[in-house]
Amino acid sequence: MSIIQAPSSVVMIRPHAFHPNPETSADNAFQTQAQVDDVSSRARAEFDTAAETLRTAGVTVHAFDDFGDSDTPDSVFPNNWFSTHTGGHVALYPMYAENRRRERRSDVIEMLKRDYRVSEVIDYSGLEQDGLALEGTGAMVLDHIGRIAYVAKSNRADPVLLERFCAHFNYEPISFDAVDAQGTAIYHTNVLMGIGTEYALICLDMIPDPERRRTVAERLSENGRAVIDLTHDQIADFAGNAIELTGDSRVLALSARAYEALRPDQLAIIERSARPLPLTIPTIETAGGSVRCMLAGIHLTRRPERTDR
């Protein structure tokens, strides 16, 4: 089973002081007000159940705690500040909101170096001082097979930094404007689309330029992928914010809300090659992200277990 697109291990950050982030609400139309009092404890319980569900499916989960010491309400979404790549490469990214910059943590990188083969860490985060941002696999949806980085234009994805990343990591950038039904720019590409091994989820109608829309659809289908065209309403339910993983079998991790939003014919296409794995995270979704945002895939080679420990 190919795991190029679907990693078998992930990093997750357990939230102890979760709440929707006021610093990101201005350009994240997916954020909503949590309608419960015990937001933090509910988010933590959702996290623990989701992590256990992934482990039961055979996915390796490296969970780290954020006890809230640094006021990082979005830390449950680690895929924005780092990514990993075959060949032993790790990238650290500059973040748009100031309080999100504090989410980067050395213990995660040290774990990767200890348990996986890491040959280099490329740190772009210093470019925050120049007002640049490229928020990892939130801003970029990566086709690891076709070596394409799909990017919805936003203040979270600086075009010069995107070109630099793509040149270094050998991806072809494909950028496009994307807006929701109200004409609001999509803040992160990974709420609009997700790429599996044999299928891709995307709302093509959110790309207003017909030629760009056609190009994206054609490139997604180049490697024989079925393109599942989502509706605006399905995107609002986070149906595009999903990630394919490899456990005991190939699974598509997505939220229960996203799963319920998909039509039977769309699920049938997914189920040809992956088992949908719904995770119930309604409190966490009030922060404007869903399952894909919670999971930082590890595309690195695992080191052999040492016997002298």
Estimated structural class: alpha/beta
Strand order of the largest sheet: 2-1-15
pLDDT < 50 stretches: 25-32
Output mean pLDDT: 93
Assign an overall shape: globular
The major beta sheet can be summarized as: 3 strands, mixed
Please estimate the helix content: 25-40%
- Report the β-strand fraction as a percent range: 15-25%
Give a count of the beta strands, DSSP E runs of length 2 or more.
15
Query: Which H/E pattern describes the elements?
Result: EHEEEHEHEEHEEEHEHEEHHEHHE
Q: Terminal Cα separation, in Å? A: 31 Å
Figure out the total of helices.
10
Rg calculated over all Cα atoms: 18 Å
Structure characteristics:
309 residues, alpha/beta, three-stranded mixed β-sheet, 15 strands, globular
Chart the SSEs and their pairings:
Elements lengths: L8 E7 L23 H18 L3 E7 L15 E4 L3 E4 L13 H10 L4 E4 L12 H4 E4 L4 E5 L6 H11 L2 E5 L16 E3 L3 E4 L7 H11 L5 E4 L2 H5 L6 E4 L3 E6 H6 L2 H8 L3 E5 L2 H4 L5 H4 L1 E2 L12
Parallel strand pairs: 1-2, 4-5, 7-8, 10-11, 13-14
Antiparallel strand pairs: 1-15, 3-4, 6-7, 9-10, 12-13
